[in-house]
Recover the amino acids of this structure.
């Protein structure tokens, strides 16, 4: 039975089932796809969840990286964007996370435990006074 492209209340459910079937079949064969809407990206955005929590004292980024070894994770930050690169034998994760406020990337600390990456930043200092002479 084929679904048409009408707006239906179960569209999200059908997309999730298609994603799970693709993930299951790609792990076994690599050539099977049930998706009628185009190719599936097995990186961030499909099955990886990224949360950003901001308080007055810190900016915390939490990302799910299932199956990734700690040594296969690379992090870079320019103060406005956090870049997460990680990989396993079967998939590659590459994500650029826009931070809600400028952070001091030199104070960052990161932990990785049971497939969950957590990166904590201090907010960058606000504009400083400029003395005029």
């Amino acid at each position: 039975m084929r679904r048409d492209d009408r707006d239906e209340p179960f569209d999200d459910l059908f997309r999730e089932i298609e994603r799970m079937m693709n993930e299951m079949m790609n792990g076994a064969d690599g050539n099977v796809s049930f998706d009628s809407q185009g190719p599936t990206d097995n990186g961030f955005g499909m099955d990886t969840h990224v949360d950003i929590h901001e308080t007055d004292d810190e900016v915390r980024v939490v990302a799910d990286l299932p199956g990734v070894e700690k040594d296969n994770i690379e992090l870079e930050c320019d103060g406005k964007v956090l870049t997460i690169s990680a990989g396993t034998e079967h998939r590659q994760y590459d994500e650029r996370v826009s931070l809600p406020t400028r952070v001091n990337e030199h104070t960052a600390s990161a932990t990785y435990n049971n497939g969950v990456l957590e990166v904590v930043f201090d907010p960058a200092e606000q504009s400083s006074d400029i003395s005029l002479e």
About this structure: The longest helix spans residues 11-28.
